[in-house]
Amino acid sequence: MKKDSKVLIRFILLMALAMAAGGIMGYASASHRQTVSGMLTVMMDMLITAAPAGIAVSGLLTVLSFTDYGKGKTLTEKALAGGEESDYDAAEKQLEKSLEKGNYSLILSYTALGMLVSGFAGKYTATDMPMVLVALAVFFMLMLVNTFIQSALVKQVKRLNPEKQGNALDPKFHQDWLDSCDEAQRALIGKAAYAAYRATQKAILATMLVAMAVSFEYPLGPLPVVLLGAIWLVQTAAYMKTSHSEDFK
Amino acid sequence: MPLDNRLKEYRARLGINQQQLGSMVGASRQTISLIERGDYSPSVTLAIKIAKVFSATVEEIFIYSED
After folding, report:
1. What is the enclosing helix (H) or strand (E) of A85?
2. What distance in Å separates the CA atoms of residue B35 and residue B22, rounded to the nearest whole number?
3. Of A129, A163, A245, A249, which is most buried with the most CB atoms under 10 A?
């Protein structure tokens, strides 16, 4: 009971703080309208200009992912050639590092592509086009290389764990993979998925608040908030539907 | 709370590796590795299957302690 009231007080304080922050932001924005609006315009231009740099960082992550894959493959060979049991764990750990970097690279390159594409709506001039086209070509190349690495990674994991099923290029890959997982692996996936669910719920709310705050002074339009709302809805509905059907099946 | 266990010791006595034990009980090598490291508590079914392989009781392999 005492714990509940503490939680309630903390919740009220947090709400009060959020409202105060919103008020201060609104007041500051209204009283320095031109400065805030100018700063946001500069920031948006910088984001568009930074898109090729984002693709370059994504390329670097792809190189690191490929290097980790190479190390993972070597460790896999060692484990399969009669190595210790710890060699299997080391190989899997190394392959996971490669997968992680590859995933970050994909996310970053898609984000950079979005930033790049948004420049077409007025920012780019004819002199920018060669740089934009090179960045687009690099993006498509990164997609291909990352897909190749992910497919090769899955093959290595399947060599270490022959019971695993699925082809990374198959749209049904995630289902096939899950179907071939046993109880401990499913428990791990469940834990990781729940952590991802909680993080995404917080991130969506935070991003939505930022988009709303920016909308005061910069014409973002309703689309970003609507898209975020759609993602929020899809994630929550998928979670609730699965949780309900698992509870009462 | 994960269980303490003597799985590695029993496995060594029988001279089988994690992959082989996994195949015998219908689990993956990764799961056997997680159990041995104390990072995962097996289901009752899996614990019984493992105990059967070693002709032992579940309690001989898996040790539950309150703390």
Report:
1. helix A85-118
2. 11
3. A163
Q: Is the ipTM of this complex over 0.90?
A: no
Distance CA(A174)–CA(A177), nearest Å, equals 5
Considering the four listed CATH numbers 1.10.260.40, 1.10.8.60, 3.30.420.10, 3.40.630.30, the one that applies to the domain covering B3-58 is 1.10.260.40
Give the single-character DSSP code of A126: G
* pLDDT digit string (tens) for chain A, length 249 residues: 678 888 888 888 988 888 887 777 777 767 776 777 778 788 888 888 788 889 999 999 999 999 999 999 999 999 999 878 889 999 999 999 999 999 999 999 999 988 888 877 767 777 778 888 888 899 999 999 999 999 999 999 999 998 899 999 999 999 999 999 999 999 999 999 999 999 999 999 999 999 988 888 888 889 999 999 999 999 999 999 999 998 887
Cβ distance of B26 and A187 shorter than 8 Å: no
Question: Which of A89, A185, A187 lies closest to B28 in CB terms?
Answer: A185
Could A185 and B35 be called an inter-chain contact, meaning their C-beta atoms sit closer than 8 Å? no
Neighbours of A32 (CB within 10 A): 13
Q: Select from A88, A159, A191 the residue whose CB has the most chain B CBs within 10 Å, as the one to mutate to test that interface.
A: A88
Nearest by CB to residue B40, choosing from A161, A181, A187, is A187
